[in-house]
Amino acid sequence: MRRNRLLTSAAVLGAAVALGPAVPHTAAASGQNCSYVASGQQPTLAYGDTGAAVRQAQCLSNAWGGQPPKLALDGVYGTVMQKKIEWIQTCHGLPASGVIEGRTWHVLYHPALDCYVPYPS
């Protein structure tokens, strides 16, 4: 009986080790390294806006890995940033408006580990 428990435990442990990399991990909040504005300061941002809040959104969007370009932290909401925000919104099932508001701020602070929507070329 004891031997069966040991074998079962060993099998479960072996499976957990083997499957560990395949199990999705939760993404940590990415705001910890972006401190241009307080996390509670989340104004609506759109193409053409400038300032510290835009820089915060740029920094947060850079937590996304893969093909999306890293944005320059210049505080200017330009076309490259708009394209990236629209892609991030699509990844989270939000309307791809390019406007950063409450729900988009939330996903910027809590990015998905993976997005299965290809980044537009």
From TrEMBL:
InterPro entries linked to this entry: Peptidoglycan-bd-like, PGBD-like_sf, PGBDSf
Record's keyword terms, sorted: Signal
Q: A single Pfam family, by name?
A: PG_binding_1
> Residues of the signal sequence?
1-27
Q: Which residues form the Peptidoglycan binding-like domain?
A: 51-108
What name does this protein carry?
A: Peptidoglycan-binding protein
Which species is this UniProt entry from? Streptomyces sp. R39
